[in-house]
């Protein structure tokens, strides 16, 4: 069950997508909802050697102050209070790298972390948080698209399955959602039946059936560089409310160089996605 949820409020851009999503999830599971708003502090150039003045000028323009973080927290409390949900909230302040490390550590004590997707059109200090939480919290993360609006009603769930450890972790963490879903679809891309074996898409269907969950399958092939686009297209075609997937099945370095599925999702996400690593 999800009894204790943490939502990370973006301060440098609108927080409505994650707040609306978090409230609906807390209602669905009857959970306590806590929020953190981070006032990112600029790096002090006096303690860093070799960086240019242009770098610090750029870093400073993204700096937010504690007043803005407090405003976001007040917005959260007003919305959650009106919904009648048990809640709490706080602010922290630190440099981006240290703040994201701290937020990841805090996230370990919750059943779910809710994080806003980075918006490529409006870069900010918050952008590195999703990756930090995914890798370092040890807990499932719900990534909310910056275009999301309104509550999340996870009636139609799409599981992105590749037989990997992160994918298995994600399915396990998604069980409370799957048990409330009306339809479950499993999609696998480029699955080799001679290799998949015990971790095949069909094996996952059998596993879910033992949890009294019925799922359909969708198997197809496509170029490796287009997998994330294919998944998002399928999610749109099937009107999926929630996607479930493992994050970073390969190393971050390999994904950065080759352009992996997780990195593509971070950039192009259109559906709230439960991720685990």
Automatic annotation (TrEMBL):
UniProt family annotation: Belongs to the universal stress protein A family.
Domain UspA as annotated: residue spans: 156-276
InterPro entries: Universal_stress_UspA, UspA
SUPFAM superfamilies named among the record's database cross-references: Adenine nucleotide alpha hydrolases-like (SSF52402)
Lineage: Bacteria, Pseudomonadati, Pseudomonadota, Alphaproteobacteria, Hyphomicrobiales
Native source species: Rhodopseudomonas faecalis
Protein name: Universal stress protein family protein
Cross-referenced Pfam families: Usp
